[in-house]
What we know:
The chain is of the alpha+beta class. It has two domains: 31-233, Cupredoxins -  blue copper proteins (Immunoglobulin-like, Sandwich), CATH 2.60.40.420; 243-329, Cupredoxins -  blue copper proteins (Immunoglobulin-like, Sandwich), CATH 2.60.40. The protein is 38% helix and 19% strand. The protein contains eight helices and twelve strands. It has helices spanning 7-25, 40-72, 80-109, 224-235, 244-251, 291-299, 301-304, 318-329, and strands spanning 121-128, 131-138, 144-147, 149-153, 158-164, 169-172, 180-182, 188-192, 198-204, 216-222, 281-282, 287-288. Strand 2 and strand 3 (144-147) form a beta hairpin. Helix 5 (244-251) crosses helix 8. Mean pLDDT is 89; it is low at 1-5. It binds dinuclear copper ion. Dinuclear copper ion is lined by residues 127, 130, 169, 204, 206-208, 212, 215.
Amino acid sequence: MVFGCHPQQRRSAVARIAAVSPLFGCGCAGRQSALDTAGSEADATSLLFWVLVGTGALIWVAVVGLLVYAIRDRRPTWSEDAAGKLILWAGPVFSSTVLFGLLTYALWLMPGLRPATDGALRIEITGSQFWWRVVYHRSAKPPAISANEVRLPVGEPVEFVLRSDDVVHSFWIPSLGGKMDMIPGRTNTLSVLANRAGTYRGACAEFCGTSHALMAFSAVAMMPEDFDRWLATQSRRPASAAAPGQDLFLRHGCGSCHRIDGTEAHGSVGPDLSHLGARETVGAGILPNTEEAIARFISEPDVLKPGTRMPSFRMLPPEEISAIANYLKGLK
Ligand code: CUA
């Protein structure tokens, strides 16, 4: 106890609290924080959070102040009438007024929380154990298929169309907006408006199996002209030099699960790899995108992502795995 102890003990307890207090602020910043915002909905919800925290803190200070006052007050007991009035006004009246005010504020925020979309850019996301299929639909342009990474233009509302292939997942980019469940047999939509360029982290927010915590993705908010330029590259076939890895990739049957535009690989069970080399991460947000990481994922996906449906290829000679990784890293 801090209050009922020796002054020296009290000082050391206060010093300990002061030493750990910066830890409470750690969750407020970073690329996966709902309080370090870069989107319109995240702005509104973080403001709501701070209003609730601020109001709660004020009430806590007032209650503790009253408690200290009551302990130190040496006057004879209050009259029954005065005590009754205090209980009435500081109890039901004050609590209901504060709760009603906060509820009104939260309800007032809700209608404008999600920006209206005009359908100009729709991004279809399908959750699978434990990765994300991503298809961009831009009016009058052919759809562009990708995986495990979401890119969107700053200042333009985007409609996410959310589905699931197997179990319930949940799509969430905390820095940009709220979360939305992805339910098998159902289509949910979520509109998001990014207002600051940057790379953020999205995650699956619903327990979906062994590797739920390893089902992440990067969300890159880009300036509109950069986004259009990037999207055009996604609709083009990857420039694939006749790398020896391509032959090995096809010969070992990788193409029955993965698709690479412009080759015989047309699989759709696993992530599209057409532009894998240009993505931020490998394995849905779990490894940096390097040749070594790709080789490691091919060799031991079961270790890196327990429960994944991709079989391991550790029986292949290491030089063949390196050649396939070199080919995949070159797909941009
Ligand atoms: Cu998908 Cu958790």
